[in-house]
Amino acid sequence: MAELPIYLDCHATTPVDPRVVDAMLPFFTDYFGNPSSLHGYGWQADAAVKKSREIIAQTINAQPQEIVFTSGATEANNLAIKGVAEAYFNHGKHIITVQTEHSAVLDPCRYLESLGFEVTYLPVNADGLVDFSALEKAIRPETILVSVMVANNEIGVLQPLQSIGELCQDQGILFHTDAAQAIGKVPLDVQAMNIHLMSMTAHKVYGPKGIGALYVRRRQPRVNLVAQLHGGGHERGMRSGTLYPPQIVGFATAIELAAAEMAAEGERLCGLRSQLLQHLHQLPDIHINGHPSQRLPGNLNVSFGGVDGQSLLLGLQPVVALSSGSACSAASTAPSHVLKALGRSDSLAYASLRFGLGRFTTAAEIERVGQAVVDTVNTLRGLKGV
Ligand SMILES: *Cc1c(COP(=O)(O)O)cnc(C)c1O
User: Fold this and answer.
1) With 0-12 CB in 10 A as exposed, 13-18 as middle and 19+ as buried, what is 130?
2) Which has the closest alpha carbon to 295: 186, 170, 221, 168?
3) How far is the CA of 74 from the centre of ligand 1 (A)?
4) For ligand 1, what atom is nearest to the CA of residue 152?
5) Residue nearest to atom 5 of ligand 1 (CA)
6) pTM of the model
7) For residue 378, which of 291, 268, 294, 286 has the smallest C-alpha distance?
């Protein structure tokens, strides 16, 4: 088999940490019980689920009963947004979100619009930060929910959660945040940040795919949700379906490791990112997308003037696996809605690269990638001049 390119696409997914795999393995074979069963096998599995729930709750300063396991962040976002809309439509039918959210937030909102809800999609400034005064102005008496992500999946920008949370708390509006990219990478405290609902996923933080959770606040205020999956009444009635102990144990282990290593790993990734930027700064006409410092440590998103985005990705393909900043959904050739919201032109939005550095990225890899990007951009620009 041909050697695979260097992996710098950690916003798409991450490999499972071998320590996480080790923790998961016994739950496929030895402790395989259904956590709902009332016998030894069930009790064993249930104990592991209980411990995992405690670990996850603790890292975000929540109570274990406030963690609802889901198949990932897409499902958690759907449960939060549609579940709140169905539970609170008597209070109002207005929702506020942001233009740069993930499609797993935007699409449930669009779906609710088709049912008669009104949704405000807030603009962001040139750095990708939500326009706070626009948020204040968008609030109406009938607003029931504000949904703003912690960290953006394309440009890594960290939104001012603290002030948004305070505003929502003051106004008596529920606050949901999509933390898929942020959990285990930046400190999150649902109490201090006045978060009422928070979506999480394991596979962006060296855990397995197919598992995540929604934090649902139980006090001050107690959040009501209408379930989107009906069945055995698992997860306090909010999400039916047999729990999956190997995935849940893997999720908790991944979160626990990431929390313990967060500070040191964040510093290491910032160092690697600076190293990469040093290479890129050899090139004229490059544009960094998103706030220079208020962003995830492993994220860098850059547009290259005067090159064709498709040729750039193709040229780099043998060396490095990464995504363009542009929409990665197979059917879509539209430029990234996130980069467009920053005010980038179509051509710059197309000619962009999203670097996602991670736990297993090395300095030697960054040297090779930095060199390859500089060479490829120079070659493409040279060809164009001919
Ligand atoms: C990856 C991602 C999702 C989707 O998460 P899944 O667990 O893959 O469903 C949602 N929101 C953001 C910001 C993401 O990065």
Assistant:
1) buried
2) 186
3) 6
4) 13
5) 73
6) 0.96
7) 286
- Residue positions annotated with a catalytic role: 328
Q: Whose CA is nearest to atom 7 of ligand 1?
A: 72
Note whether 268 and 169 are same-domain residues. Answer: no
Q: Cα of 156 to ligand 1 centre, how many Å?
A: 13
Ligand 1 mean position, distance from CA 242 (Å): 22
Per-block mean pLDDT, blocks of 10 residues, the chain (386 long):
88 97 97 95 97 98 98 98 98 98 98 98 97 96 98 97 97 98 98 98 98 97 96 94 97 98 98 98 97 96 93 94 69 82 94 97 98 97 71
Which of 4, 28, 59 minimizes the C-alpha distance to 253?
59
- What separation in Å is there between the alpha carbon of 38 and the centre of ligand 1? 34
243 and 287, same domain (yes or no): no
Residues with CB under 6 A from ligand 1: 72-74, 102, 104, 149, 153, 178, 180-181, 201, 204, 212
Q: Number of structural domains, the chain?
A: 2
- Same-domain check for residues 85 and 172: yes
One domain for residues 10 and 35: no
Domain of 363 in residue numbering reads as 6-14+262-381
235 & 337 share domain: no
The DSSP code sequence of 228-278 is: SS-SS-TGGGTS-S---HHHHHHHHHHHHHHHHHHHHHHHHHHHHHHHHHH
Which residue is listed with tokens 């908790």? 252
Residue from 11, 16, 102, 150 whose mutation best tests the ligand 1 pocket (most atoms within 8 A of CB): 102
| 1 is a domain residue | no
